[in-house]
Specification:
single chain; about 450 residues; Rossmann fold; Immunoglobulin-like; 12 helices; 16 strands; about 40% helix
Length: about 450
């Protein structure tokens, strides 16, 4: 049966709601805003899923903080961690190795023997390198701390959207939960889904959470008398079978769940991961968002061009040099700019406040003046740029719509930096232009 996205009730479980925090902020906001219209009054979560979401969403919102901490400090559970510590430990290890080398080769009366001058030169080279490495580590650490500040100030768009657009199913009484938990216990002895894989990891009623969520899901669909889609990112065997060629996708639900769903509601069960669901929604309603971000198999046919460039704005007398490095993902109706790093360099002896950054698409008019046809939303920076200093912004995404009758030979990508000298009343807009010919090479 074809997936019915125009009339189905969509119910999100805890795992799928929490995983919304993993997506690019710009793209996920765009598709969720449009879903609010096309799925009006058809988006649900169960009461028990909502309770679990409220228990865990703050950890997901600020989870990137831990990822940045792992760049510095070793995490016993991850090999991809502690890079700064490893570099520092490597320098110490080299220093100790040189000391041992000197002790082992300093006796001229037996082999091996090496002259002290050569060992001393090696030791000095390591000291010089250590000084430079320490300086660079300090810069990287500053970048890490700046990113953590941005994350700490992150607005929780996901929870706001959930509060405004997702309905809650009925809250079961305590006696109902007791009865369902007893039923679940008996079903788990026979390894009937869902939830029997959670017995060892949870205690109390949370041991039966999946089974309770399932029963609440059935009630939502039966009450609405419409087809139902369960969006779930729990891919354990007590929920579904995974696709043979991609273990991140649901192939189809467990047979027992399909039979029970059909008996309870009169419809066939549809079960998708969040990425599968978002991709199907984007494609079906032709939102023309960055659909490839949601495509489960990650096969991309989008046009991607990469550019690394530097631009000097001192000619505009704002005194700030911009350097951008990143990637443009070009789609039919929009462009997403993924900036790996932006560097702002103060060429003056005054302090600036960096206010905001905007991505635009511009062109030259017949009279030679510039016009910006489309602009992205404003990225608030709120950063201080000290005299003759520099600051970095890393891992930034900006999205701009493509103007009608867009022709690359006529248009330029424009970055607009709004800045203000400290203790000065005026603000300046420094711009950086790069032609599409440069992007596509």
């Amino acid at each position: 049966m074809a997936l019915d996205l125009k009339s189905s009730i969509v119910v999100f479980d805890t795992s799928s709601l929490l995983n919304l925090y993993l997506y690019n902020d710009v793209s996920i906001q765009a598709i969720l805003n449009k879903m609010s219209v096309d799925f009006k009054d058809r988006l649900y979560t169960t009461d028990f899923s909502h309770i679990e979401f409220l228990r865990n969403y703050k950890d997901k919102l600020f989870n990137p903080l831990a990822l940045y901490d792992q760049l510095v400090t070793k995490n016993k559970d991850s090999n991809d961690s502690g890079y700064i510590n490893k570099i520092q430990e490597g320098i110490v290890a080299m220093e100790k190795a040189v000391e041992k080398l000197h002790d082992y080769t300093k006796n001229s009366e037996k082999h091996p023997f090496l002259t002290g001058a050569n060992i001393g030169a090696l030791s000095n080279a390591i000291k010089v390198a250590k000084t430079q490495i320490d300086l660079e580590i300090a810069k990287v650490t500053t970048q890490i701390n700046d990113q953590k500040k941005l994350i700490s100030a992150r607005k929780d768009y996901i929870k706001d959207w959930i509060d405004q657009n997702i309905k809650l199913g009925r809250k079961f009484s305590f006696s109902e939960l007791q009865r369902i938990s007893q039923d679940a216990h008996q079903m788990f002895l026979m390894e009937f889904p869902p939830g029997y894989k959670d017995q060892k990891d949870k205690v109390g009623i949370r041991k039966y959470a999946d089974y309770i969520i399932w029963k609440q899901f059935l009630e939502i669909i039966a009450t609405n008398k419409k087809p139902g889609i369960l969006v779930i990112d729990d891919l354990k065997e007590d929920w579904c079978y995974k696709k043979p060629n991609d273990s991140r996708q649901i192939d189809y639900p467990r047979e027992e769940l399909s039979y029970e769903f059909s008996e309870a509601t009169g419809f066939e069960l549809e079960m998708l991961t969040m990425s599968q669901f978002l991709f199907e929604v984007d494609r079906h309603f032709q939102y023309k968002t960055n659909a490839e971000l949601f495509k489960p198999d990650k096969i991309s046919n989008k046009e991607i061009s990469t550019i690394n460039f530097k631009a000097d704005n001192a000619r505009l007398d704002f005194g700030i040099t911009h350097r951008y490095e990143g990637r443009f993902d070009v789609f039919k109706d929009n462009i997403i700019c993924k900036l790996n790093q932006v560097k702002f360099i103060n060429n003056k002896d005054i302090q600036f406040k960096l206010i905001s950054l905007i991505l635009g698409i511009g062109y030259k008019q017949d009279d030679g003046r510039w016009n910006i046809a489309q602009r992205s939303e404003r990225l608030n920076l709120n950063m201080d740029l000290v005299p003759n200093g520099e600051v970095d912004v890393i891992n930034v995404d900006l999205e701009v719509s493509i103007p009608e009758a867009f022709q690359t030979q006529q248009y330029w990508i424009v970055f607009e930096l709004e800045s203000q000298p400290i203790d000065q009343p005026y603000r300046g807009i420094g711009t950086t232009y790069t032609h599409w010919d440069g992007i596509r090479k």
